Amino acid sequence: VSVRLDPPRLIARKRDGHALSVDELRALLDGYLAGEVAEEQMSAFLMAGVLRGFTTDEAVTMTDVFVASGDTVDLSDLTGPTVDKHSTGGVGDTCTLVVAPLLAACGAQVAKLSGRGLGHTGGTLDKLEAIPGFRVDLTPSRLHDQVERIGLAVAAATGDLVPLDKRLYALRDVTGTVPSSALIAASVMSKKLAGGARHVLLDVKCGNGAFMTDAPAAVDLARLCVDIGRAHGRQTGALVTDMSQPLSQAVGNGLEVAHAVDVLTGQREGRFRDLCLDLASGALELTGVSAAEARSRVEQALASGDAAERFRAMVEAQEGDPAVVDRPREVLEAAPVVQTLRPGAGVVAGWDCRRLGEVAAGLGAGRRRKEDDVDPAVGLEVLAPIGTTLEADDAAVHVHARSSDDAAWAVGELRSCLHLAEGEAVPTPALVLERVGVEGT
Amino acid sequence: VSVRLDPPRLIARKRDGHALSVDELRALLDGYLAGEVAEEQMSAFLMAGVLRGFTTDEAVTMTDVFVASGDTVDLSDLTGPTVDKHSTGGVGDTCTLVVAPLLAACGAQVAKLSGRGLGHTGGTLDKLEAIPGFRVDLTPSRLHDQVERIGLAVAAATGDLVPLDKRLYALRDVTGTVPSSALIAASVMSKKLAGGARHVLLDVKCGNGAFMTDAPAAVDLARLCVDIGRAHGRQTGALVTDMSQPLSQAVGNGLEVAHAVDVLTGQREGRFRDLCLDLASGALELTGVSAAEARSRVEQALASGDAAERFRAMVEAQEGDPAVVDRPREVLEAAPVVQTLRPGAGVVAGWDCRRLGEVAAGLGAGRRRKEDDVDPAVGLEVLAPIGTTLEADDAAVHVHARSSDDAAWAVGELRSCLHLAEGEAVPTPALVLERVGVEGT
Description:
The structure is a homodimer of 441-residue chains. With 441 residues, chain A is of the alpha/beta class. Helix content of chain A is 45%, strand content 15%. In chain A, helix 5 (96-105) crosses helix 14 (306-317).
């Protein structure tokens, strides 16, 4: 069915609270791609959608059109079950570096296209590039062969995946139209669908370090993403997880790699390790394994060292120094200056997690603008998760900096990121707030 | 106070339901004028405003910035009280041609800048140009001298009045962001403020032939316009009036002039005459005259023939044929074809008034696009206002057309504009629904 394109009428329908039909929405988005719908018409439509909402059907249609706007990756001739995992972005969130090897060790195939950090959140490619020699610019055939051979690869996208989402995101960024669950879900899921995996597990972050600070909104987003994935025939699940404090104790590229290696080699426990196991187990469940069996296989893959060896194989295949698995703190560049925040006695009641990410970025670990370079060595080690009792001289954060001035600035900033309670016990926030489409154990 | 311009933040504030400060709103609009705020940012802001609303203070600020964006007319050295009257646009609304002469005859000075018709509504300049020889392109000094000498002039704007409103209206028209009381009020009032009169009476039309179809919304718009005018030191009032049927029985340029002359020369009574008296009396009230005194002076100006002589003086001064006052149907061009709609027996229960305007425009009386010419001779005479009892062969509308084909088309279209009731009496709709800032009698 063809629809004569009448952008003002379609905008007015959304403005007045109506859902657009599949044909109407397709006509509008295709018209935008073709230059027949002006930027100012699309931004008005998006604002109407932000305030009036989109239906699940509309989100599914938008995702469709996003995917169809560019290249897609074909993983159909890989022999194992293809799995992808995606985080909506957090602080100290290095899960991919542990989850991908865990899944590969359990027989899944992970051909993960990752991004770079922007603003207060880090990017997986930046982290991996902290490993000397590591290359993220794999050709499609090299990526494909590596995944078939060792079960995993993490690389930059080569083709022009989902260009409509990129163009719309740039428009949304300058027009106050980012906060729409449907637009966020369509953006996330279109990239996952274009990435080609048949099984997709999402880690929807929630808390003051995430884009979603409100738990019900994060759960709605997770459900919408799962609905979109299923509508496109992908086995899709989601965990909604806490981001009210840094997930790993490290925030910064090389520091996060070292902590991920610690988990893979059995030398670090805690929330970061727990979530990696939950995510890997949830993703494996989506391939048709029972929750209990998935948990058991994932724990075995970690305990046996198989996951660590998969990580080493990936580093080797992508030309990084494999010794990073054995001696991460020798292989990874160390920052020249380390200063420590000792905030005094008290119980850690909370972190301004987003601000922690911004401070790490300010030290050089992240980017303010896309064209900035990142520093692999700098960042924060946050030693005191929520609930920790600190004595008068205890360290709360080690700042790894390029200069003493940078370190002093960061220590000063960090004081106001930490909320100390006097005397009373502070409960640890739950790690997994909700599971959608996966059972867990 | 200067505000660093951050459009996405200002858009997000409006999106989230906040009012912008005077400085913020000025910075945004000035930035748009200067090209520092993109079209897509302004349209997103406008959509947020349409859905979240603007405060009266915001509407006042927008009006300020609109006026300051272009030229203004200085009427301060005219000797009488300067009065302007504005209609939000209707069908068969020729009031200016009667009200301006009435006010001039009562000692007020009316330097009216008028517009042309677009869509289903007519424009005063088009109507006056139906008078052979009539010129609307007066220089500012000629307009000024004419008003000082005879009390009235109706002309096209010469300077660049309120260019920001023109630019924003073009944007709103294509982005579904027209329906906002504050934007409409700022648009109307900025033009009145730039026009220079100290006393402003608004005729806010309401009904199926007006832009506002909903009475409470029309009353809100009237109040907002009055608040804006007063905030700028102008004596401002408004009548909210019915536009559920053509106001005058004529719809079309020359036909409307003839009917206006009929009223001025005492040969026509009815709703059109009644509203002209109400508007002129209300406008006179704003100059400090009591409602009773205003009404008495206006009635006297009509009965004495003074108003008709003022109209003749204006036509002469603007080079039109003054005999139009004595023999309008000889001086004005007649359409070559007249056909009549005889809809059968019944009581007239309603008119699709907007559609009537569109049919008249379709005959050539109006424009689809700005660059179209209008035909002075064609249009409709609607003989049967709501409540009229028609016998089987009674005429309801005379169609004045350029060709038989046009006339036949119009008669066909008109059948579906007329709603006939069987048997029961139908009440006449009230003419004035609300008065704001004027007392009336």
